[in-house]
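From the pipeline queue, job 12 of 40. The input is one protein chain; the requested action is below.

Action: predict structure.
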Amino acid sequence: MGSILLVIIYIAFISLGLPDALLGSAWPSMYGEFQVPISYTGIVTMIIAGGTIISSFCSYKVIHRFGTGMVTLVSVAMTAIALFGFSYSTSFRLLCI
């Protein structure tokens, strides 16, 4: 039982932290395809940081209302949807949304 819980915690940790690291490695091929300057990665990074700050401010109330397990499950699902959004974006504006 402890091993299964450890695997679940590990998967949640990796899936929630993955998008931040992927932007840095994917941006060199993305900015050319979107035809934007390389410096626009700062805009995307600030949007991600802003979302992180807002979710941190709201985390106490959300966890208190729905519980840690449900919040983690929804967070991982939203992260997966965001990664699919990154991969299917056809323009920089769509990437920012």
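Job complete. Residues 2-96 form one domain.
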